[in-house]
Amino acid sequence: MDKFYEALSLFRRRKYDLCIDKCTEILDKQPLDQAAWCLKMRAMTQRVYVDDIETEDAFESDFFDTNIVATAPRPGTSLKINTASTSENPFSARPRALTGRPLTGVVRPGTQKRPGSSLEALGTARPFTSQSSRTIRLGTAAMLSQKDGPFIQFSNFNINKYAGKPCLSKPLFEYLFYHEGDMRNAMELAIQANQHCESKDWWWKVQLAKCYDTLNLIRKAEEQLHSAVKLQHHVEIFIRLNRIYSKLDQPLSALNICKAGLEIFPNDVTLLIEMARLYENLDNSSMSVKFYRSAVIEDAINTESIACIGMYHFYNNQPELALRYYRRVLAMGAHSAELYNNLGLCCLFSQQLDLTLSCFQRALDLASDPLIKAEVWYNLSHTAIAAGDLELAVLCLNISLSADTNHASALNNLAVLHHKMGRTNLARSYFLSAKTLENDMIEVNANLEYLQNK
Amino acid sequence: MSLFKTKEVWSHNCEDEESFDQNSMIVSPLNSEADFIITGSHSGILRIFKPVLDINEGVLQTGYKPTDLILEKSFDSPILQLGVGKLVSGSMLNHLAILHPKQVSIYSMTVKEGATKHGIQYLLKLMYTHSLKRSSANFTIGHFGGTLNRDFICVQSLDGMLSIFEQESFAFSCFISVFLLPGPLVYVRKTDSFVTSGSNWYIQCFKYKKLYDAGHQSPEKGSSSAGKSVISDWDFQLNEGVIELNVLELSTKEYVILILGEKNLYCINDWGKLKFIKRLDYSPLCFTSFTLDTNVMNIVVSETNTVLVYQNTTLKWSAKLHFLPINIKRANLWNLKGCLVILSDEGRLECCYLGTQPSLFVAPPLSYQELDFEKAETELAMLNKIAKDLNNDELKLSSDPTEKYFSMNLFVDPELKTCNHESNISIAYNNQMCKLIIDVKPHGRLEELQITMLVSKPLKCVPDTFFYTDLKENLKCECDIFLNEDNEVPSLKCEVVATFISDTGVPRNLRKWVMLPLNLVIKFCPPQKDNEIKINLNLNRDAVPAAVLFSDLMQDNPLEATGNATGFTNVTECGKTVSVLLAKSSQRYRLQSDSLISSNLMVEQIVFRLRKHFQDDDDFSINFSGSLPLAPLVSCVNSHFNARKELVSLQDNLAQLSSQYRLIEKRLVAKLKTKTPSPLTNQGILLDDTFLEIMSTVDRLSEKNAEMSKIRVELECSLNAVLNLIKLMDLDNKLLPLIESTFQQFVYDVDGQNWEDVLDCNLQYLLRTTLAKSEKDKLRAECTNFEEVKDISKLEKHITQVLERTSKKLSIESMDLIEEKGQGSSFSPEKGEQPIGSSLGKASSRVLSARIKSSISQVPESRDEKNEQV
């Protein structure tokens, strides 16, 4: 069998390492075989490829950010301020993440910093670029696996020559962007290739926008995406435009983009979920749930939608309904500490006490992250309170605090329990430490005010 | 992610190490009414299966039977693709086409009936072969050129040549113009064209006619090695890698092309217009499609072993597969219509249907044993006890005397030495330093120990901290103390604070103080006669002559202290002279000076030395009966206030300037960022100007800060003097700590709160409680919050009032009965206590309600409503 056919077949069967070896063999014999070179590039890119629409990019704008439209936006027009909303079912009663956004049913990149992620470790004092930590990491990881130096030496590379070859330029760009993480050369290639095809290929415009976005030239990226969407209606362009507007803190424009997208691609799940997330961040829970429901009708195995609908019911005092949604997620094969924790909570509030403890037990068994452990113990303390066992509740809260010393809600509840047991001074000091951790927590402030005024 | 799993009805495993790809299987009825499954591996083995599922008493008999494999044949060269069509001229029967790397062969299958079922023989007969010059990639079969009842073959080679074979004869070949990697190739009957995915990630369409023209125009007509390259008829900018292509005819006679990309599933019509896009949130492997009514149905297999059924873009079903397939087809088998045939790349072949068999996820069992309740209870009790003991231990440990851990002794070396440290003093010759020695004796192991020396401002201690870890042995720390600035010294007290963590992890601290030698800062000078400030100190013993009292100063120049009057002044000669006069046998000292600031240190020293001198005499007392020196104190406060005001205004100015600077900077950045450069319009000059102004403000600010620190020291001096005098005034035990804490000698100015604000608040509190003149004053609300002092005269009035009332109270009290005193002072604690006690009862119910409120809005507060997205 032809070696090149074998390499092609291996690539199609996702055996990228074998495919790379095959291509290397061919290239050793014929170093100028463009097809093998291209295939090797593609295989190397595919090996490390991550859908960059869903990578974490959330970063706070700094002082010199000239893209900010309004420093004091009107209520309902910004994702950054967390004011109390005016809708009937405000999310403000819900707990919020550290960034001040309401918690969603799903941990998704971009909206919440995952505990222990490298971004968090970077700290806040250091300004960081919009390049997500994933792209930085990929470049270095890929370099390690190549024993005899990098595949392509970009130091003496004639980008202009390759920009004019439509068959090579696109794989080359992806290689540069995803595998090498070399934004400068990638952008150079994108600009020249765009000129070569006389700005008629929407793909180059989108790639240019991606580069601009990484370099934080958001307005330029917006320009490119708008001209791309004129050439071709594509879901990806709509989502990228929406992300750009979210980055610019213009949720209403983002919503309009999504609506326009939905007119062209009715019932597209990605767009529906995008809208639901936006409404969620805007504290409009009823609209958010409406879109999540439409998404579920279209795609019944969408875990994010099911979990978010479940959470909506939970916070609307319908734990039985929430329980059904979470059980569905469980039946679909998800198996995580968070899920068991939520099931336990739903069981607790829907009076299915026999299942509560076993759910929490499983959650504890699965929880490896101390932060998650802290949450589970915190919820267990509510079980203890419901059972009237205050000593146990105090113990649970103490364990929770030993896992996560910054758990303000646990401190608050511990203080309340201590106050109930007559240890007012201890309670006060716990309230104060809760307040230092989370300054605008309603409960702590109410309790402290009460202690002050009694 | 699925609720269900597929139900397997028939499966076959290929034992040898063979590999298969997406073109290695076709499902075709050939010339019978139900489908055969034909597979061909890269090792060159062709297998034809005829899965027969019998129905026995209404139940489908599942499972593979040896008779299902009707034909197995091994070829020398690998099988790349299989195809079925009417490929033999003059025959309406379907024939099997097999693509090898260098040839394409057509076979016909014939059946030789036997006596029994397993006696039937299937034979494969080679009809004809075309050999290929170039390595082939794939082919497609169809009625090219609109021929009826005849199928042609179009083979795509690895380097982009299309060769058309009209049944037994070779027709022509041509090249695709933009080509690098071969993509899937399909034929659309309606438009008579080929659709393929080009290497530039476009979907390209080539009309057969155009290919025909190009193929026949080429000079070397007939040879398969050359041909003209053709340009596509239309392109669709798909812009991603393509995994598979499919063509479907809808019931409306419309043709659609379904494209499975790496990220999306597309549906375009036969002239390249997009019908729909389905974004896939997983990575797809293969797919198959069919029509149902007017809908396009797609069955996609994802990399996570799931088969997903879409009706247009709506997900209709998803089910879990048992293995990862490389190829999926839909087949109508005997007794089972529309079942799925899947093939993995190792050769596992399976027929299955969707069914509602739940894909039960079984969580791994927890490794908890059955609880023995009695044992668990004792264990719980034990753990509880440990937890409780730990709490108690902490309390016990924190109440242990500090001396138990270690002891600390302080010595001051009375010998002064010339200072060898850098200081800000202008006159260098009398710059001296004294040595402070700290002896530390730990009684056990100390985890960490930090010793800090605190001296009043113009004095400086080098080094000012010591830090040790894991300390077990005795330790001797030495540090030097010297004057750092030309200024008066508020106090010669040196405080040493030792903070340590014992080996049990309990943090504790220990404070000790020592008086520094006077000759470090003070020297003799001729006494002065007439001065503004006169302070009389009365003793109940005979006065001690200065020569005795200041014997340590005496050593240098014994002559000057022999008289009744002695003069003292600061070594840096920055203050005024203080004269100490003592009348013989009058039991009285008189201090005279032109400034309160300078006399401060002498008051402190005389009191300290006298008490030391008479330390064995229990009845000894010193008394101050004159009026307190108010005016100098008030003027000090006044100057501090004014200096502070100027400082704040300078800071405000600086803040304004720097925000202006930032604005200009921001504007410049915006200008430089724009594509079309525009003139800076003198913004550079503006930037420079602002910068210069900022610098000059900073200079003024640092000057003012130096001045401020001087004023602060002076204020501290006068405060200390007044405080020392008040201490001598025989106040009652309850009032004294209040006054003492009000006139703290440390003056701190923090951002947003001046020293005056705190003082004023304290004074007002005193005036309304302990020092209240009338009942009406007591009824006024207590001053609880710190407000910024704007009007200095009010503060001055308050200071005067407090000090006057303090001295007045003294005189009234000494005259009046003791009862009244008791009444007046016992009033305030009662007043404070009563509300606390009474509200305790109500307290618990309110907080309970607060807790309930908090637990309702908060139980959901469980932050944990996140589910990992799977």
From TrEMBL, chain A:
InterPro entries: BBS8, TPR-like_helical_dom_sf, TPR_rpt. Pfam families: TPR_16 (PF13432), TPR_8 (PF13181). Gene3D superfamilies: Tetratricopeptide repeat domain. It comes from the Eukaryota. PANTHER family: TETRATRICOPEPTIDE REPEAT PROTEIN 8 (PTHR44177). This is Tetratricopeptide repeat protein 8. It comes from Cryptolaemus montrouzieri. The lineage of its organism: Eukaryota, Metazoa, Ecdysozoa, Arthropoda, Hexapoda.
Automatic annotation (TrEMBL), chain B:
It comes from the Eukaryota. This is Protein PTHB1. The keyword Hydrolase does not apply. Residues 517-625 form the PTHB1 platform domain. Residues 820-843 are annotated as: Disordered. The keyword Coiled coil applies. Residues 640-667 form a coiled coil. Residues 433-509 form the PTHB1 GAE domain.
